[in-house]
Amino acid sequence: MEVPLIVVEPNDDDTNKENIEINIQRSSRGLENYYYLNNNLPPHNSKKITKIVCSSDTNYVVTFSEEDKSIHGWPIDDEFDDIKEGNSGKELKYNSIFQKDELADLLMVSNDRYALVRISKKEQDEFRIIKLDEKENELFYVKGNPAYDQGTFISSNNDFFIIYKKELEAYIYHTNQVIVNKRETDSDNNRDITTIWKLKSKYKFVFPQQFWQKEIRPPIGFFLTPEKLFLTYKGSNILSQWDLYTMTFEKQYLLELNKRNVHPAVKNDDIFELKQAMVVDGTKKNIMAIHGYSTFNYEHQILVYSMVTEFKISSYTIPSENSTSKISIVGTSKSDGGLLIYGFKNGEEKPEYFLHDLNDLDFYEKAETISNIVPDRVDAQLVVNKELSDKVVIAKDSKLTVFNISERELKMLRDRLKLKKLKKDQADKTFKYYPYPYPSSIVKTILEMFEGLEWNKSADLPAEYTCKELDNIKWNVNHWKKTGKTSVKVSELQYFDNETDKKLYEWKELDEFKYFPPREIFVLACRCIENGDLIMITKQGIRIFTIIQPAKKIKMRYFWDNDHWREVWKSTRKFERPFDFEEVKKELSRKRNRLPSLDFNRLIELYETFYIENNSRIWPFKDLLRIYLHDAPTLAKYGKKILNRAIEAKKGNMVELICNMCKNFLEKDSDNFYLLRIIVKCLPKLQQNYPDIVAEFMAKSSMILDHQCFIVTNSEYNLIHGYSRDVMIYEKNTFWDHYHQIQFFYYRFYNIIKNIIDKISGGEDEEKFGIPVVIFLIPLYKFSSFSTNFDLYYDIYKPKSNAFVDMDYPAFYKEWNAEALLNFKWHTYGKYYYYTHWLWFLIYLLVFAIGTTVSSSILSTEIRYVLLSFSIILGLVFFTFEIRDFIWRPRRYLKNIWNLFDCGAYLFPIVTSMYWLKYGKPPLWLPTFANLLVDLKFLLFFRVFESYGRYFAIMLGVAKHVFSFLVILFIIILSFAHAFFILLSPQQAFDLNTPAVNNDINNPWVLTNQLYQMNPDGSYGQNPVLVQQPSTSTNMFAWFQTSLLAMYLMITGDSSSLSSFSYLDRHSLAILTITFSFFTVIYLMNLFIGLLNNAIDINNDHANYLIEKSRIIAEIELFHLFPHQRRWRTWFPDVIYYEVPVDEVRKQIHLLDSTTQSSSNYSPIISSRLRDIVDVPKSYNQQQQDLLSEFEAINSFLKKINGDGIHRQFSISSIGNSGGTSKPFKSGTLGTPGTREIKTYFSDPDVTYIE
């Protein structure tokens, strides 16, 4: 029976085809022949099933037969979840078929049963979308080349997403219902309605700026899932995650350099075959695994990442030449799950299944039950991670069968893996805290221990506790009611041979733990579990103890209580309040076989609890937190939360512990810079409460090598050049297409001009190799990137900031990281916006200056009004930025003195222009100050250049430095002005326009110049002939405000304000004048000059200029960029890289080696790899310190071997001295004397050898 198909025919010009158009092809039997599907017939005409694909909701499976060239659809309903666990599965029934001779492969299936397939053509293969339906199938043409391009159906809305790899574009199509045919009858119900795929949106991939400048486009690599896009490109090991529904960036992961097979941008050539796949936890969506296999090295390489913390959890390599292994994540619906690896191993036809621990892939168990339910010689198989239960879909003999994976077996396998991991982590150097590796039976054991417990009834102590699984470990727990003390001891069963050649054994005590709060009744129950750990239920909470090897010491591995339990424990020491354990049992039962995580608030509360032993303090809970955070993924998950609470609780020692652990992980491996986001997120609080920790952190992280830098490279930049490696995805539209065309034209024009200059200078014949540089990274993860969440109100009026914008970090701007960050921001977008703003302000300045300065004889009234109106418009536009800045953070805005100049430069011209337009020419002082402020504002634009910006930074810094002294000086001047005002102000009323002669010696008419007539006999008249009319400057002390001005003039050396007064009869005036001139003019002013010199020396720093520049860039980011521009990955990446000339690196390392402290009082982390790259060995002091550390380790371990038999203490002089009389070791090679024969003393297998 023929199936009527609705076929989409491609247009001749596929490049211009956007919407998918359709033409109906009717079957030859006519429309009256309705198609009925007979699913009792053998599927695929009894041909072999080659491939199985499942929809993202796991409710529909599609099979493909390469021999039959057909696909079949099989529903998996909820009723299949009731399949009994075991060897018997349930056979599926297909409900749709599609067959076509050109059908080459099945690629994807959507939740609404659209299948993406590959069709063979002569020139190249093509995509098709098939609607699988019981009645008829619809076939749609999709532009693309399956050899390069890839598509998927978005699970949330069933849209179709496809990436065109060569064009660097992505399209999204969505379905739409249309009427394609109307029958002869006019009834509206008699119509043919079908579906078309319409173009919904286009997206473009944009590379970082360095690729635009060089006009190159590296090949991209990607993984597609129904929810996410994981994107990278060749040469980058950053894998970014994008949400397909919103097309927004979410996270990024760091690929391992030595795992070449999992990099999606690795070229798959004709010589070597490369197979890659990605799987994501199908229920919780918090685990992601990448699998890659290449015939280049015949290795299966696997990486597992946490999609919550973005941290790599584990990695694994399977060296196999014949294995066709696949991976799937199972068991995540009810527990923590595992990674199921399965395939045909070593050419066998029966697949084998292995369950690996997701947190450490080295641990695995063979899943025999799963292997047993799968029949031999299967055609295809698929593991489905379903919400309710995991399943295996098996194709054999053209049939499809579903088997439920036994949850019981998964639980058993996970418990085995956890026990293995527990035992491994008991080594003293790798001992870590995990709540998850404990077997699922641990909660059941604790619940059993709660049965019959009474609050005021102690356990029967002393007692011994052992376990059947580990019979060579014995715990002894004792409690003394009189003293309230508790003790826990552990013993080990040791075997030895006696003289009669019979093996004997005895219990040897290993360690004792007695750090408990004293209570009359404390221990309620104890039990030993499979791995030898001891569970203890006390009145304070649940504790678990373990033994670390080979030191064989007791460590507290776990502690937990709830709020009610804690409240009862704190309420009284006499145990007057009983406690009901039913609430605790219910809470533990809800945890689904998992121990609750540590309560950070409780841990912070108990952090400083200590016990004294042998005159030293023991901190059990501090040790517990340190152990807990010793695991990098755990630190990444909980570190920020603990650090925030520690800062709020003012626990400086805990804050320092967390910060030091982050720095230690960074020092061990630069790939751990992801952990620094813990500190970066808390930087504002840390800077406010613990600035020294921030200063040390900034210095330690200032010279971190790029994880891809292993050799010196050449660069054309001679500065500390910063750049990003992130790829941006933006939606294509007219505006952004033109924007990027302009950007591309700019770089093309720049390269042409640069080449012309090189030819003119004669440099075209010279071979240019560039400047040797070393590549570093700024390890402050997400330090300068913004949140991806969009909110119109907050993005416009109160934009959300980041750590770069929030605060000024003086310690940060003393390092290369800051200069690289600012150079990157400035050259990427800052300078373009800044110069544009400067240009418009220059126009504003010229328009206003011409409108208010040029006389009316030259400038007509109409033109003046136009200029003033234009000044008002531009001024208001500029002033809106100041208003937004003020609304954002008023206090911060008012603290910056340059903002006051900005407001004045906009408000005064606006007011002047409005006054002029409405009332005519304003008072002269108004345009005078308006033009002055505008001119000064123009000058402030120069502060972005270092040659000018240093002086602006000095002016601002000095003003802040001497501000308190100026306040003191002002109060002193104010006091003297007040004193002079009282002494010299007129005592009687006077009028400067009306002559008044009286006995008031301070009267301005008395103090003014008077001319007397001389008689012929040489005598003078009693009254003056001419009297000069006094002015306000005749007696400046007649008014208080002029008295204050007179004091200021006296400081500057102008004492004319006192020239009218006589000192002969006015001793008080003479005393005041002498006191003021000596104390203020001579002493304080010279002191002020000295303070200015010191302040200039302090503020004449490159870091202060960078801080000022960072404020300018921060204003551009917050108030000049569009909201979506702040989310461009190429402008605001999470990690920024930068290049430094090798000579500068060598100079800096030599400087740090020659001094004990760096410029910021802390030494940066200088890795051995960096020293090897720039060829700078360790300093002499460091080599001596390393040698001393080795000898101290040797001495300590020799004491452990035989403390009584070896009393010799080794030192550099004793071991290296070849002339000594007593030498237990021979002199070794130069540089490590005597160490060659030390290995012979470490023959005991229980003793760790020290390299």
Structural overview:
Among the domains are: 198 residues, no CATH class; 164 residues, no CATH class; 90 residues; 124 residues, no CATH class; 107 residues; 123 residues, no CATH class. Helices cover 34% and strands 23% of the residues. It contains 31 helices and 48 strands. β32 and β33 form a beta hairpin. α17 packs antiparallel against α18, α17 runs antiparallel to α21 and α22 crosses α27. The longest helix is centred in the C-terminal third of the chain and has 38 residues. One of its GO terms (cellular component) is plasma membrane. GO terms for molecular function: monoatomic ion channel activity.
- Main β sheet profile: 6 strands, mixed
Number of helices, where a helix is a run of at least 4 consecutive DSSP H or I residues: 31
Shape: globular
Radius of gyration: 41 Å
Total number of strands? 48
Distance between the termini: 77 Å
Beta-strand share of residues: 15-25%
Instruction: Look at the helices and sheets and give the structural class.
Output: alpha+beta
Q: What value does the average pLDDT take?
A: 79
Q: What multimeric state do the chains show?
A: single chain
Helix content: 25-40%
Low-confidence stretches: 1-17, 20-35, 182-187, 763-767, 1203-1251
Strand order of the largest sheet: 2-1-11-10-9-8
Short description:
The protein is built from 31 helices and 48 strands.
Strand-helix topology:
Blueprint (H helix, E strand, L loop, with lengths): L4 E3 L15 E3 L25 E4 L5 E6 L4 E6 L14 E2 L4 E4 L3 E7 L4 E6 L6 E6 L5 E6 L7 E4 L6 E5 L4 E14 L8 E16 L2 H6 L5 E5 L3 E6 L4 E6 L4 E7 L19 E7 L6 E8 L4 E8 L5 E8 L6 E5 L7 E6 L8 E6 L2 E7 L1 H6 L6 E6 L4 E7 L2 E6 L2 H18 L16 H10 L12 E3 L7 E8 L4 E13 L5 E11 L9 E6 L5 E5 L3 E7 L4 E8 L2 H9 L10 H8 L10 H7 L4 E3 L2 E3 L1 H9 L3 H17 L3 H17 L8 H5 L1 H7 L1 H10 L3 E2 L7 E3 L5 E3 L4 E4 L2 H27 L10 E8 L13 H5 L6 H4 L9 H38 L7 H28 L1 H6 L1 H23 L5 H16 L5 H16 L1 H22 L19 H4 L2 E2 L14 E2 L12 H12 L15 H33 L2 H18 L16 E6 H13 L13 H7 L5 H22 L10 H5 L35
Parallel strand pairs: 1-11
Antiparallel strand pairs: 1-2, 3-4, 4-5, 5-7, 6-30, 8-9, 9-10, 10-11, 12-13, 13-14, 14-15, 15-44, 16-17, 17-18, 18-19, 20-21, 21-22, 22-23, 24-25, 25-26, 26-27, 28-29, 29-30, 31-32, 32-33, 33-34, 35-36, 36-37, 37-38, 39-40, 41-45, 42-45, 43-48, 45-48, 46-47
Helix pairs in contact: 9-10, 12-13, 17-18, 17-21, 17-27, 18-20, 20-21, 22-26, 22-27, 23-25, 23-26
InterPro entries: Ion_trans_dom (IPR005821), TRPV (IPR024862)
Protein name: Ion transport domain-containing protein
GO molecular function: monoatomic ion channel activity
